[in-house]
NodB homology domain-containing protein (marine metagenome), 65 residues
Amino acid sequence: MKMIRAALFSAFFLIGTFVSALEPIPDKLVVLGFDDCNKSDRNFVAGVLKKYGFGATFYVTEGLG
């Protein structure tokens, strides 16, 4: 199971990197990352970011729900 997860993670990472490389990088770039957040954090923050036209990467930890 761990090998499957690692393979899927690698595949998604490589695909995401390839797709990102096709888009031009904006002059002003800010990277938002939310590490070890809860689902509720993601749900609240994602709505606010979407309202103002921003995106982010969320790392939701399984045990934190």
